[in-house]
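Reopening this ticket.

The earlier resolution said the output was attached, but the attachment link was broken on my side. Pasting everything inline this time so it's all in one place.
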Amino acid sequence: LQFLRSQRDAIGKGLLSFEHSFSLKMPTSAGKSYITELLVYSELRRNPQAKVLYLAPLRSLSHELNERYEKVGEALGFESFAAYGGNSSTLDNVRLNNAQIFITTPEFFASMEGGDDGLLDLFTLVICDEGQLLDSLNRGANYELLLSRIKRRGRARFLFISAIIPNIEDVNTGLGGGREEFGDSIYRPCEIKLAYAERNG
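Inline output:
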């Protein structure tokens, strides 16, 4: 396998071996998705009882991730399940129990968790995608409270992902990780093309 410079940096700093939390700050198109899949695969291979909670703040992102992990899971032998809208009481609990990866929004998961105190104990790895949501005035506080409740159980490890959040080290230590357990790369493997329009008449 060949990895991009940003991916090699994250793996070298412990992405596949961290104990509590690892945070990943990389620009768009720098390979976050691929090494996240690598971590998920490593988690599921290492522990037959593993279960991954993938928190994606947008329904469109949840849908996209679900399609991706269905394909990856079919090839690698694990099952994913997504739920990110509607009424949590209509959730297919059988599919949730059978799936190794559960993809949902923080709000939907919080509504589920409120009705099932044991739900937090199911997961061994929690992936927080688009982590800059913690800075959101509307949604950040509830997201942070949810992560605090999961952390308090002490069972799950965290992978925190963002392309833009500035205080990645502080977030990582807040989730229980070490000050060196984060990837912070500015490497972008593709060119950015800029253009400007000039108004004339």
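Reporter confirms the inline version is readable. The mean pLDDT is 86. Strands lie at 21-25, 52-55, 80-82, 101-104, 125-128, 157-162, 182-184.
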